[in-house]
User: What shape does this take?
Amino acid sequence: METVLYALPFRFFIWLLLAVWSGIIGWKVIFRDSFPRFSGRVFLGISFLLFVAIRVLYAPDRQQNIDTSTWLATALTVGKASDPLYTLLNYSDGRPLAVLPLAIAELIGISLDYRLADLIGVLLWCITLWVFGRILKSYLAKEITLALIWLPMLLLSTVWNDFASFNTEITGNLWLVLGLFWLLRIREKPVWAVVGIGFWLGCLPFVKFQTVPMGIALGLFGVWKLYQVRRFSALPGLVAGALLPVLLLTVYYAGKNDLDSFWGDYFSNYFVYSYTTEYSDLSPGERFSPVHIVRYLLHSYQFFLYWIGIFGAILVGLFGLIRRPVLKMTGQKERFWFALIWLIASFYAVLQAGNNYTHYLLFLVFPSLFLLSVLGSTLAVAITQKVVLVSLGTVLAQASINCFFRKPLDIHPGEPLFQQISAEIQNRSQPDDGLVLWGYVDRLHVYARRPMGYRNSNAFWVYFPTSTQAFRMKEFLSDLEQNKPRLFIDVMTPRISMFADKAYKFENYPAINAYISQHYQLVKTIEDVRIYERKREKIK
Assistant: This one.
């Protein structure tokens, strides 16, 4: 099947479908009354159908990004847990709501693999794009709205690897766009609904801590909209709702006598990750320099033309606005300033950690489109049409490059070793037995279908030297004692583990070495991977 999918004739066929449909949408933008027999819903439905079909067709049942293995390991662990809520909160690397869709699938008995995870991600994209379209069509012509929604679908139909895999940005974008959809209607909402909107925004740190700056931007927008209609009595409800998730989890963890984990896993660790140089050598000035930003946006040939098309159109719109200020309507003014602040907050969130992972850029998709849509609503119809068509042409050129340069996912050189280790794990354990990996090879949880014996799918946070290492080491030993995982596997080898280094061998950490020596015994060595099995506990 893979031979057919990546053969030049089939790739040309996929490109032809996208090009023809893009041409039809472009024609509809220019001639609004064309294709009278087809409603806007039909156009949108065909767009979604093409997007889903192409993504599913090219979705490999292999790891495209290591983070996907992390979230699949979390979902698998939640699905096998006796206390799913506690497990979801503690075994999700501080992002329980981001992996909730996968966890629900495992809980209802769906055994996830990489292809199914990608399908869930695509469906979440569809929901987000549909809601975003509902937002845009309230002040844009439906043809322009359709074209703007098609731009990310056109790109995301053809990307692969890091940009295409299931990751937390997918759920994060859904959370933000739904929050914006409700905020735009907050003026008429009863107080209980205002509290609910605040609660939704207050959950963002538990979707992905990186979304907090965007959540603050959305929250301030809600405050402004309530202030405009002088609904001062509803303002405390919005603030209280936003604080409620943290308060509820504080009470929950206090009841478990485990507030240290709440603080360490959700806040302290991500503060160090995002606001220090412990995980990145880039200084704050280097992280936010214009040159660095441009290089980051354009560093991959899979999407550099997309950003040129989108941000080029935004610059044209801003230039037109400066030459002829037309923000006369109150709605236009507030949408413009909010869109600008949202985009700035998103850039800040993407850049703050100093780690230029490709999937972070997904957080720029919707604020940039929203700003472009607002600017488009201020321009003359003919100019808006031209700007949108140029953007459509640029993104189609990017999709064309992706179609013809798309290649099968490379098989990891260590794949035979992964298979040997996975088979040994399955032979030496039962489906519910915990597994601990000393190293960064999360895919072994997915291959072997074994839950996490420690609250992270790898031990990176434990062995990597940071200011939180002492806390993480204490937490690691506590989890091993409480869960008593059946297998402890030393995968600290550069052949298969990220960040592998002899300095990170578990023997170099006295407390961990002592615990493993006391409670585990070496039962198998496969090449340079050592498999330890827990000793039988003596009955006292």
